[in-house]
Amino acid sequence: MRILLTNDDGWDAPGLAVLKSLAAELGEVFVIAPRDPHSYAGHRVTTDAALHLEETSPREFHLSGTPADCVRVALTHVFPDVDWVLAGINRGGNLGVDMFTSGTVAAAREAALLGRPALAISQYLRQDLALNWEHTREMARPVIQQLMAEGLAGKSHWNVNLPHLEMGVVAPVVRCQPDNLPLDVRFQRDGNALHYSGTYRARPFTPDRDIDHCFRGAITVSRVQL
């Protein structure tokens, strides 16, 4: 198995390091990740400027572009023979309509558009609990293994969100639809300046969809059809 990894937090992010260690258990790992963080970049791509590719170690590169750029460059130019694309592990949830603004999910979407099975995985964060990446790794491993073994129909990708739990708490895995309600969109005005003041946890949600399940402590798995 030849597995391409990318993310939107940047090539040196701890979530990518965790994903590399997991992918190494499943096959041969290749990496092209953004040189700089591109959170909330969505599916932006670069067509009007040069993209600069730099090797950081064998089979690993960073690119001066977005997550979608990384997948495009990898699949068409640098690593055209990879079997799977994994994006993440994102620091922060990508639940519901987050998928439209997430660079991590955009990387999986771009891979699906180019005909490769792909999975985006994100770690939801609670403000009242420190993040333990080892716990993230333990939750992610069996889910990634199962979904990669299961495969995907064409023009679709997996979107996985991990809950933020105390060490030792076992999270159930729930397959569900992504929510389609908007975020908590509020702004505070200071003269001509507008500052976003919405709260992630305060967002509305639909019962039995991904936000509801993840907020209640489940690992959510959604198959997103393009």
How are the elements arranged and paired?
Layout: E1 2-6, H1 14-23, E2 28-34, E3 53-57, E4 60-63, H2 67-78, E5 84-91, H3 103-113, E6 118-123, H4 133-150, E7 156-162, E8 173-175, E9 187-190, E10 193-196, H5 210-215, E11 219-225
Parallel strand pairs: 1-2, 1-5, 2-4, 5-6, 6-7, 8-11
Antiparallel strand pairs: 3-4, 7-11, 9-10
How does this model look, in words?
This protein is of the alpha/beta class. The chain has a single domain (2-225), classed as Survival protein SurE-like phosphatase/nucleotidase (Stationary-phase Survival Protein Sure Homolog, Chain: A), CATH 3.40.1210. It has five helices and eleven strands; from the N terminus they run E-H-E-E-E-H-E-H-E-H-E-E-E-E-H-E. The strands form two sheets. A nine-stranded mixed β-sheet has the order 3-4-2-1-5-6-7-11-8, sandwiched between helices. It is globular, with a radius of gyration of 17 Å. The mean pLDDT is 96.
